[in-house]
Amino acid sequence: MNVAQVTPVGADPVTPWANDGCSRIPARVYTDPHIYARELERIFYGRHWSYVGLEAEVPDAGSFKRTAIGERSVIMIRNRKGEINVLENRCAHRAMQFCQERSGKVKTLVCPYHQWNYNYDGKLLGVPFQRGVKGQGGMPTDFALEDRSLNKLQVAVRNGIVFASFASDVEPFEAYVGDEVLKYFDRTFDGRKLRVHGYSRQRIPGNWKLMMENIKDPYHPGLLHTWFVTFGLWRADNKSELKMDAEGRHACMISRRSETLDKDVTQGVSSFRENMKLNDMRLLDIVHEPWWGQPTVCMTTIFPSVVLQQQVNSLSTRQIIPVSPDKFDFVWTHFGFEDDDAAMTERRLRQANLFGPAGFVSADDGEVIEFSQDGFRQDPAFETLCELGGTDVGDTDHMVTETLIRGMYRYWRKVMEL
Amino acid sequence: MLPVERRAELLDLYSAYAACLDDGRFGEWPDLFVEDCHYRVVPRENYDHDLPLSTMELHGTGMLRDRVYGVESTLFHAPYYQRHIIGIPRILDYSDDEIAVEANYLVIRTKRDQPSEVFNAGRYLDTVVTTQQGLKFRQKFCVFDSELIPNSLIYPI
């Protein structure tokens, strides 16, 4: 290990970058605890919007869901006016994470330690023995309930999807996402009521950014994933587009399934199985839905915390919750629409076999991320090479490029000042 | 009470099931099911809230064979051993040709160069039926408590 490159404890991180570019990413970006601490502060707790959940998960006043932004525990709860609040799960008294259930419905939020009691807006309603007992003890005279609310985050709800931010000066959600990516956000989430189908949770032993990169990397799906290349769901000859916001932090990978095969893209590709036939074709019973338009797949990354998936009839949000520099939790929420008929719901659920921790095309994404992390760990001087399609950043009408990863790192370097 | 002989046959089915997976004889795994079977690996969270999503859900032995092909041929993964510890089956109900069974299970995973670890803990909710080739599963739901899958789940549970 090169000692000169390691950040001393308590100091600001030193840039691990060898140059001004964003196409060669140093291993320490994935392993250094000081860099990770700054990411939490500037990215997850800074002026960014993080995914929290779906409005459909909290249908009534008092319905809540507990989740996390970065390493901070938060509660999404609906108030009596029907609005969504996101409150930090930390009692104003002794910092207790008072909410331990993952979801449910409550009359008020009560911290069991000393029964401090909050309403759905996070306002402190009362504390036991505020005025003492028989003239003894009690809170000081300057104690005021209104000074002791739960930490209330900024909230943006767009067509049923809930985002939150710890920063009071964060830009409006729509400006944050940008027109181009917002168009694809609205393609799936156009205001139709959603129906939650369930959750999958996995802990992936890799840095959180590796998952963002995986869904900004159109190079791998037609190589790593036999199902994608063999059944044409994602292949280099598909008509595709890559689009970013102006900052390069968010992106969409949009593509159209091929019915015909260009032999150039399967020549020598070891994962391609020309004669592979499914015993049960119901796993790929694809029915075109009018709202798709031409594309059959759109994978959207909203930096830093969520992937929005439409891959044929399967829909999910995939939330990234960092746990440490070398670990994150990946939470899948699969959904359909309230007006889906029974056959469509069944179809979405069957196609869910392709995705999630056991998925025919997703299980191996977790595996490759783990082994990349292992590779970073063994040599801090290593840097990755993301120069497919050049070293610049820009939208493309093909998928033979790593431009989206470069876009993210161009932004990352700016916000991290590293 | 379920007659002792049928109970013994049932125990044989569960021990054969564990041995098949733990030996890595995945190609033989579908043979332990009837043709129109229903196999699910499902988080307890979803199961308890009547949410239909499974981690893996296969209908019929054709889909089971497609999964086996995935395991053996298309899914890139680090290899690992599985060791199933299955508790004594609890008979929930039975008739002449069908037994409803619940059984706790624990799957230990051992990856190359790594210590063994608890990989998945849960219970089977099964329907076992009598066939001319002996007892087979018509339904096997693996409802797991484990809140987080340690990265990926490749082999059947």
Overall description:
The complex is a heterodimer of chains A (418) and B (157). With 418 residues, chain A is of the alpha+beta class. Chain A folds into two domains: 108 residues, 3-layer Sandwich (Rieske Iron-sulfur Protein), CATH 2.102.10.10; 239 residues, Naphthalene 1,2-dioxygenase Alpha Subunit, Chain A, domain 1 (Alpha-Beta Complex), CATH 3.90.380. A seven-stranded antiparallel β-sheet of chain A has the order 12-18-17-16-15-14-13, sandwiched between helices. In chain A, a hairpin with a 2-residue loop joins strand 3 and strand 4. The radius of gyration of chain A is 23 Å and the shape is globular. Chain B is an alpha+beta fold. Chain B has one domain: Nuclear Transport Factor 2, Chain: A (Roll). In chain B, strands 1, 2, 3, 4, 5, 6 and 7 form a seven-stranded mixed β-sheet that branches. Chain B is globular and about 45 Å long. Chains A and B meet through strand 12, helix 8 and helix 9 of A and strand 2, helix 3 and strand 8 of B. Strand 12 of chain A pairs parallel with strand 8 of chain B. Chain A: Keywords: 2Fe-2S, Dioxygenase, Iron, Iron-sulfur, Metal-binding, Oxidoreductase. Chain A: InterPro entries: AhdA1c-like_alpha_C (IPR043264), Rieske_2Fe-2S (IPR017941), Rieske_2Fe-2S_sf (IPR036922), Ring_hydroxy_dOase_asu_C_dom (IPR015879), Rng_hydr_dOase-A (IPR001663).
